[in-house]
Specification:
The protein is α/β, with parallel strands linked by helices. The chain is built from 15 helices and ten strands. The chain has helices at residues 11-15, 42-47, 67-80, 93-105, 120-128, 140-151, 164-170, 172-181, 196-209, 251-254, 276-286, 295-309, 318-330, 351-357, 369-380, and strands at residues 37-39, 52-57, 85-89, 108-114, 132-136, 157-158, 187-191, 240-246, 289-293, 338-343. It has a six-stranded mixed β-sheet, with helices on both faces. It has a four-stranded parallel β-sheet with strand order 5-4-3-6. Helix 9 (196-209) links the parallel strand 7 and strand 8 (240-246). The N and C termini lie far apart (56 Å). It binds pyridoxal-5'-phosphate (PLP). Pyridoxal-5'-phosphate binds next to helix 9.
Length: 381
């Protein structure tokens, strides 16, 4: 009986024919993917524009960020290759995902994090899942360089997004969006750090687009038949890809690497993006662009989304929505458009910043009936 029940068992089982994995290799999965695509009503009403605005809530992945999509494929592949350990540099979410999937697979995870610049929830995850956490005096970019140097002659698999299996897993978010909308959005907005995710989404959309007009038995034209994807769905257009950065950490706006990136949005505190060339190509091919925001605006949008729509994302994630709202207001995104914003990580990852923003929101009252009633009536008045 229970075997008859169709359980969702993660994105490898769902999309294996479109992933470069051997059909026989068992997936290392925590049920990632299948995240909600939520249409925003209140924020759109506030804007007074006629757009279909959606957020893809990637914070609802098993470890609370989109990194799980890449990690399930990268770790599955590492096991297939006989690897015994994985390593990554991380601003937090990659380390949380690497630690969890490594634990699941029985591998050792080594994670290199910047001293004091990682959100509390992410650190808690890495240590709870039993990763070996190496905290360095240096930022993500320094950590990334060290990972590459060490992995060159140590028996460890790098699971940063320079590992191509990461992007292969992350491209599945585009598949899910197309399946739900029945088409590609006109604009897709993402926060940009290493620029792996914007690249991965473009790969996903492009694979579907390459199938336009193809018969359901023809091999994928995008990868030259490397995957076994032959079926639906097809799309006739691809979205314009819009990448948003924090102003203090915006190499794509400077047109050059940034050596001392600074932002409250620690997940995108990256000055030397690993997918630099690919992301420029994505912007060019898709007719998109990059833009930047001061930290205050990211935090304000994070708060507004939580307070007006009930969706809690982390500060870096709010960059995508901040961008969409600004571009809708300015008319760069025209009325009638369908827009998807990726909310990369869950708000609970970074409780310190959330509480900091809401200082004064907590009301002290005496623990007795009249005082509580009085406080409620005052606020309803
Ligand atoms: C990793 C991460 C990003 C940046 O993604 P890139 O692929 O590095 O551009 C943005 N937001 C969150 C929450 C992340 O964890």
């Amino acid at each position: 009986m229970s075997e008859q029940v169709r359980r969702y068992t993660g994105l490898i089982d769902r999309y294996r024919d479109r992933l470069p994995l051997d059909p026989a290799v068992p997936a290392v999965s925590l049920g990632e993917g299948g995240t909600p695509l939520i249409r925003l009503h209140n924020l759109v009403k506030d804007l007074g524009r006629d757009v279909a605005l959606y957020v893809k809530y990637e914070g609802l992945n098993p470890t609370g960020s989109f990194k799980d999509r890449g990690m399930t494929v990268a770790v599955t592949r590492a096991v297939e290759e006989g690897s015994r350990a994985v390593i990554c540099a991380s601003t937090g979410n990659t380390s949380a995902a690497a630690a969890a999937y490594a634990a699941r697979a029985g591998l050792t995870a080594f994670v290199i994090i910047p001293d004091g610049k990682i959100a509390l929830g992410k650190l808690a995850q890495a240590v709870m899942h039993g990763a070996v956490v190496l905290q360095i005096k240096g930022n993500f970019d320094v950590g990334m360089r060290l990972v590459k140097e060490v992995a060159a002659d140590a028996p460890v698999t790098v699971v940063n997004s320079v590992n191509p299996y990461r992007l292969q897993g992350q491209k599945t978010a585009a598949f899910e969006i197309v399946e739900e909308l029945g088409r590609a959005p006109d604009f897709h907005c993402l926060p940009v750090g290493n620029a792996g995710n914007i690249t991965a989404h473009w790969i996903g959309y492009s694979e579907l687009w390459a199938r336009k007009g193809a018969a359901a038995t023809e091999a994928c034209a995008f990868c030259g038949g490397e995957c076994r994807f032959t079926g639906e769905p097809q799309i006739s257009t691809r979205p314009r890809m819009l990448g948003y950065q924090a102003a203090g950490s915006a190499p794509f706006l400077r047109g050059a690497m940034v050596d001392e990136p600074e932002t409250v949005a620690t997940a995108i505190r990256i000055g030397h993006p690993q997918s630099w060339t690919q992301a420029w190509k994505v912007a060019e091919e898709s007719g998109g662009r990059f833009a930047e925001f001061p930290d205050e605006e990211l935090l304000a949008v994070q708060k507004r989304l939580a307070a007006r729509e009930g969706v809690f994302c982390e500060p870096a994630s709010a960059a995508s929505l901040a961008g969409a709202l600004r571009d809708i207001k300015s008319g760069y995104i025209p009325e009638g458009s369908t827009v998807v914003c990726t909310l990369t990580g869950h708000g609970l990852k970074d409780p310190d910043i959330a509480i900091e923003q809401c200082k004064g929101a907590i009301i002290d009252v005496d623990g007795e009936r009249e005082a509580v009633k009085q406080a409620i009536l005052e606020r309803l008045a």
